Fold:
Amino acid sequence: MTKTKVVEIKDLERTYVLPSEEIKALKGVSFDVVEGEFHCIMGVSGSGKSTLLNIIGTIDKPTKGDVKIAGRTIIEEEEEALAHLRNDFMGFIYQDYHLIPSLTAQKNIEVPLIFANIPREERKRRSKEELKRVGLEERGDHRPTQLSGGQQQRVAIARALVNKPKLLLADEPTANLDIKTGKLILELLKSINQEEGITVINSSHDLRVIDLSDRITYLRGGRIVESMEIMSIKITKKDL
Ligand SMILES: Nc1ncnc2c1ncn2[C@@H]1O[C@H](COP(=O)(O)OP(=O)(O)OP(=O)(O)O)[C@@H](O)[C@H]1O
Ligand SMILES: [Mg+2]
Structure:
């Protein structure tokens, strides 16, 4: 059975034009992401990971090439339609969490619901539900500065999930965390992917993501140098 393509990218280029030079951040990238996949973008610093994720997230535009999200050609869409697509279809997680410092954890999670015009009581109920899912039901009234990095990233994950997205974009979500906390965050993303079938595109330097991923795409200098499917081998007791 062929799976639905959530993201389709063809010959994507992104050139940043600076007064002194042009930087070709993406130089002709093509790949698809299918529904339910846990897809990891890997590559050294400067290889184009964030540029690619920002374009998939429709917060940046390609210089050339074609990008389809949920079957919709992004360059043909008006900004207002893209804002709806972002809010209804996608969730974003960043390396430095991007929480609003003046708001409590619970209020931070409510932000996408405010944009979606969800009434107050329902916002409260849904943000509490998400806090529980990420194991922070006791911390809803804490502000970001009163939370550890791992807890802040959990709040950011809850905020990304509160609108029930189909696609979760995570740009180096564990880069600021210690090894153990980073592992817990990756496992949380994997469980969300498996239990709810949410497609995840995650960028990382962290080799441990290989174990969790269905496909890895390696970028180097704005080009794909390798894209491989990871066959998960499940070893049971009787195999030993
Ligand atoms: N707004 C910008 N203006 C000019 N050049 C940019 C801009 N954003 C990124 N670049 C350049 O584009 C290239 C790719 O950057 P990008 O941020 O996508 O890399 P990355 O793989 O995410 O790196 P890192 O692992 O350090 O986050 C780099 O050479 C970078 O300097
Ligand atoms: Mg980056």
Q: What stands out?
A: The CA atoms of residues 146 and 152 lie 9 Å apart. Residues 16, 18, 23, 25, 43, 45-51 surround adenosine-5'-triphosphate (ligand 1) (CB under 6 Å). The longest helix spans residues 179-196.
